[in-house]
Design brief:
CATH topology of the largest domain in chain B: Porin
Shape of chain B: elongated
Strand content of chain A: 25-35%
Oligomer: heterodimer
Strand order of the largest sheet of chain A: 4-7-8-12-11-10-9
Strand order of the largest sheet of chain B: 1-2-3-4-5-6-7-8
Number of domains of chain B: 2
Order of helices and strands of chain B: HHEEEEEEEE
CATH topology of chain A: Protein Transport Mog1p, Chain A
CATH class of the largest domain in chain B: Mainly Beta
Number of domains of chain A: 1
CATH architecture of the largest domain in chain B: Beta Barrel
Number of helices of chain A: 5
Structural class of chain B: alpha+beta
Helix content of chain B: 10-25%
Radius of gyration of chain A: 21 Å
CATH superfamily of chain A: Mog1/PsbP, alpha/beta/alpha sandwich
Distance between the termini of chain A: 81 Å
Largest sheet of chain B: 8 strands, antiparallel, barrel
Radius of gyration of chain B: 21 Å
C-alpha cells in the first residue's frame, strides 16, 4: 500500500497539472486590451498576443504622424488617439527592396466638419463612403459589395467597412469607420496584410473595438442617440 | 469509421492467433501417453475463464471532449495508445494521444499529448466486467495557427476517469470511460467531461 506521503506527492503533481487560470468562457478571455484615451474620445480594442504586438514607437502611436490617408486625401488625427499593432513576418525576404510586416493595424480618431456632412449623416458614414470611392479608382475593390457595408461590434455600435487590394504591392486593406457618441467624430480602423482579410478571425477582431466612456464601459445606443440628437 | 473497423479486425485477428497457439497445446499433449482423465482436465483448465483475466495490457482508444472557449476553441477528438503495468488491482500506466481540436475561425488545431494514470480496477468478482477509477495527469502541445502565424501552446490537465472494461474473448476487451478533467492552456482554465472508447488486449 502506498504511504500517505506518496499519495500526497501524487496529489501535488496532479494539482500542478490542473487548471489554474482565467475562465476560458469569458468574452475576451486570453486577449490583451489596448485602451486609448484621447481628449475627445476613448476606445478599446482586444487583440491576441502573440502573434499581435503593440508598436508603441510607431509615429502614429507616438503622435509624430499627424494624419492618415482617407478618401484620397489626408485627414488629421486627434492628438493621442493613435494605436498601432503588428504581426511581423516570419521570413526576412524583402520584396522589391521593401519590408512589410505581415499584418499592420492602425486605429485613430478622426474629426469631420459639420459642413461636410449631409443631413443626418455621421462622420463615420461620410468617411467610409468617400474612402471607398477614392480607393475603388486605384485599387481592387468590391470584396464586400459595391459600397461600404454597415455592421456592428460586440457592443452593438455601428461601423462601416470596406476591403481593397493594392494593385502594386498586392496587399489587402480592410477599413472600418466606427460611429461614436459625437456625430463629428469617427474611429478609423485600418488593417493591411499579405493574406486575405475577409476571414472570420479578422472580423472577430474588428468587432472587439468599442467606443467607451471615461469609465471604460461601452457607450450605449441610448447615449449615442442622445449625443447625436444634441449635435443635430 | 473504416479505420476503426480495420482496428477491430486486427485485434480480433491477433486474438484468434493467440487462441490458435493455445489450442495447439492439446496436440502436444496427445504425444504423451494417453491418460484420458488428466487430458480432459487439462483441456478444461485451458478454457479461458473471464474471472482469470488480470486486466488490460495495451489499449487503443478514441476520446471525445471539449476545450471550448470564447475565442473559437471547440471539441477535441483524439486517438490514443495506452500501456498498463501488471499491477492487478492497481490500474496504472500511461499513454500517448494525438488528435484535433475544432477551431471556429480557421482550420482545426493539432494536439499531441501524453498521460499517466493510477487508480483501482475491480477484478474477478464481476466476471467479464472490470470497473475502474483512475486519476489522470496529462501534458501536451497544441499546434495552432492564428492570423496565418503558426503557434504552439502548452496544455496541461488533471482529472478523474471512471469506466468499465468488458472481457470478450481471451484477453480481448472493449471499454468505455467517462472523465472529468481540468485543463490549462495559455493561462485559461477549462473544465470538461469526456468520453473514452477503447479496445485492447
Amino acid at each position: 500500500m502506498p504511504r500517505f506521503s506518496q499519495l500526497g506527492s501524487v496529489a501535488v503533481l496532479l494539482g500542478s497539472l490542473a487548471a489554474c487560470g482565467a475562465d476560458s468562457e469569458g468574452r475576451y478571455a486570453g486577449l490583451d486590451t489596448a485602451h486609448i484615451e484621447s481628449s475627445a474620445l476613448s476606445y478599446k480594442i482586444r487583440y491576441l498576443s502573440p502573434p499581435w504586438k503593440r508598436v508603441k514607437d510607431d509615429p502614429l502611436a507616438t503622435g509624430a504622424r499627424k494624419s492618415v490617408p482617407v478618401a484620397g486625401g489626408l485627414r488629421d488625427v486627434l492628438e493621442g488617439s493613435g494605436l498601432v499593432l503588428a504581426i511581423e513576418r516570419e521570413s526576412s525576404i524583402n520584396e522589391m527592396g521593401l519590408t512589410y510586416a505581415k499584418y499592420v493595424l492602425e486605429a485613430a480618431v478622426l474629426r469631420c466638419d459639420a459642413g461636410e456632412l449631409n443631413g443626418d449623416e455621421s462622420c463615420a458614414l461620410f468617411l467610409a463612403d468617400g474612402d471607398y470611392r477614392a480607393r475603388a479608382n486605384s485599387e481592387d475593390s468590391g470584396f464586400f459589395g459595391p459600397e461600404a457595408q454597415e455592421a456592428s461590434n460586440d457592443a452593438g455600435q455601428t461601423f462601416y467597412e470596406l476591403m481593397t487590394r493594392d494593385k502594386t504591392t498586392f496587399r489587402y486593406k480592410r477599413l472600418a469607420f466606427f460611429e461614436t457618441g459625437d456625430r463629428l467624430l469617427a474611429v478609423r480602423l485600418y488593417i493591411e496584410a499579405n493574406p486575405g482579410l475577409a476571414d472570420p478571425l479578422t472580423t472577430r477582431m474588428i468587432q472587439t473595438l468599442e467606443i467607451v466612456d471615461p469609465d471604460g464601459k461601452p457607450v450605449s445606443d441610448a447615449t449615442r442617440a442622445q449625443a447625436l440628437g444634441a449635435a443635430r | 469509421m473504416s479505420r476503426l473497423l480495420v482496428l477491430v479486425y486486427v485485434l480480433l485477428l491477433s486474438s484468434s492467433t493467440v487462441a490458435a497457439q493455445s489450442s495447439a497445446g492439446p496436440v502436444a499433449v496427445q504425444s504423451t501417453p494417453p491418460t484420458a482423465g488428466p487430458r480432459r482436465n487439462r483441456a478444461h483448465d485451458a478454457r479461458p475463464n473471464p474471472a482469470d483475466w488480470t486486466g488490460p495490457r495495451v489499449a487503443l482508444s478514441y476520446r471525445l471532449y471539449s476545450l471550448h472557449d470564447s475565442q473559437g476553441g471547440g471539441r477535441v477528438s483524439t486517438a490514443g495508445f495506452s500501456g498498463f503495468l501488471p499491477t492487478r488491482y492497481v490500474r496504472a500506466g500511461g499513454g500517448l494521444e494525438a488528435g484535433a481540436r475544432r477551431y471556429d475561425y480557421a482550420d482545426s488545431e493539432g494536439l499531441l499529448s501524453g498521460n499517466l494514470f493510477v487508480g483501482y480496477q475491480h477484478l474477478h468478482d464481476l466476471g467479464r466486467f472490470v470497473p475502474y477509477a483512475v486519476v489522470l495527469g496529462e501534458l501536451g502541445i497544441l499546434f495552432e495557427k492564428r492570423f496565418h502565424t503558426p503557434q504552439t501552446q502548452l496544455i496541461r490537465g488533471a482529472g478523474l476517469e471512471l469506466g468499465a472494461n468488458v472481457n470478450l474473448i481471451r484477453s480481448l476487451y472493449v471499454g468505455v470511460g467517462l472523465s472529468f478533467m481540468l485543463y490549462t492552456i495559455d493561462g485559461l482554465a477549462y473544465d470538461t467531461f469526456g468520453l473514452r472508447l477503447s479496445i485492447g488486449l
